Amino acid sequence: MKALITGGNGFIGSHLAGALCRRGDEVFCLVRRTSKTRSLDGLDIRPVVGDVRDKESLRSAVRGMDAVFHLAAVISALDWETYYQTNTRGTENLIEACLEERPGPRKFVFVSSISAAGPSPPGLALRETDEARPVSPYGRSKLLAEEAVLARAALLPVTIVRPPNVIGPRQKELVQTIRLLERRVRPLVGTDETRTSLASVDDVVRALILAAESPKSNGEIYYVTDGGAYSWREVTAALVEGLGLRGFALPIPYPVQLGAAAASQAVARLRGTAPLLSVQHVRATRTLSWVYDGSKIERELGFSPSQDLKETVRRVVAWYRSAGPKAARV
Fold first, then answer.
1. From CA 60, how far away is CA 49, in angstroms rounded?
2. Where are the alpha helices (DSSP H) in the chain?
3. Which residues, at least 6 apart from 297, have a Cβ–Cβ distance to it below 8 Å?
4. Residue 197: which of 168, 221, 243, 163 has the closest Cα?
5. Which residues lie across from 108 on neighbouring strands?
6. Rounded mean pLDDT of 259-284?
């Protein structure tokens, strides 16, 4: 398969690039001139300079591809226009470039987000047929992008995949949490009542490749999960166990987390950059559940999760220890 990945230097994208390279596929990654590509070091990929906000830069990039995996997105921004121009208009630019080129790609896989669907009711798992109700600018921009993709499904085989919270080696937030835990500081994220679906990055990558190769996936939306519904405190406890930590840990209470998030946003506004942590994110993990039914992709494409939380954490810890100081630079 000859594949183009946008966002290939990101967390999921770099794992996808690695998996495709190991299969012997011909892999191209769309990168901006200012992109950091350390996560792609050592992979047999061909970088293609372009930007999803500039359609003219995309036409030659998509020409002759078998599949386009679209992962590039802005997750955190200071204003709606930034979300819209990259996540919504950028997706429209890319799929229009695919339609205008001859020969164009034979499959377009759009990596959306559970944020496009919105939070789940307490005690229930959302399905793909449930009404989408995003509660954040990021989620709204991704839902609009989904609508743009599906509007062109009659012209190009498309599939939308909505990963949940994805964990695995090189996941920046997980590395930050591990470093706090090693210092005996434990963030009390969320509550025992709010729950979230999870998936290992390896399973998400397998699902994306399945979606690209199966004609059954054309025009469909899929959730990908490991089948569990976890509190973030369970995730933290699994990390503590996986790291083999013992002894007293200083908790970071909810008000302190809110204060840190507010400070992060204030600094970001002064610098004109995206905040590392937002008040909305801290509140969402405490008050909302994000649980989804992943049975559709299992039933239709034969996908089955290979890792539960314990196994994923084991792999993350093994990578973290082997990476040494490099782990802090993901």
1. 10
2. 11-23, 59-62, 80-83, 89-100, 114-117, 137-150, 172-182, 201-213, 232-243, 254-271, 279-287, 295-301, 309-323
3. 207, 210, 211, 222, 223, 224, 303
4. 163
5. 68, 158
6. 68
Query: What pLDDT, on a 0 to 100 scale, did the predictor assign at position 248?
Result: 62
Longest distance between any two alpha carbons in the chain, whole Å: 62
Q: Which pLDDT tens digit goes with each residue over 108-148?
A: 999 999 999 999 998 899 999 999 999 999 999 999 999 99
Identity of residue 291? V
pLDDT of 257 > 80? The answer is no
Distance CA 288, CA 263 (A): 23
Query: How confident is the model at residue 288, as a pLDDT?
Result: 83
**Structure-block tokens of residue 244:** 């083999």
Single-letter amino acid, residue 160:
I
CATH homologous superfamily of domain 2-166+199-227+291-306?
Answer: NAD(P)-binding Rossmann-like Domain (3.40.50.720)
DSSP 120-186: BPTT--B-TTSPP---SHHHHHHHHHHHHHHTTTTTS-EEEEE--EEE-TT-HHHHHHHHHHHTTEE
pTM of the model: 0.91
The Cα 212–Cα 136 span in angstroms is 28
For residue 10, give the 3-state DSSP assignment.
coil
Q: How many CA atoms lie within 13 A of 46 on its CB side?
A: 11
CA distance 5 to 147: 20
Kindly report, residue by residue over 177-227, the tens digit of the pLDDT. Answer: 898 888 888 766 656 678 999 999 999 999 999 999 999 999 999 999 999
In one-letter notation, the amino acid at residue 15 is H
Task: Establish how many alpha carbons lie within 13 A of residue 250's alpha carbon, considering only the half-sphere containing its beta carbon.
Answer: 6
Dihedral, CA atoms, 295, 297, 303, 304, nearest 10 degrees? -20
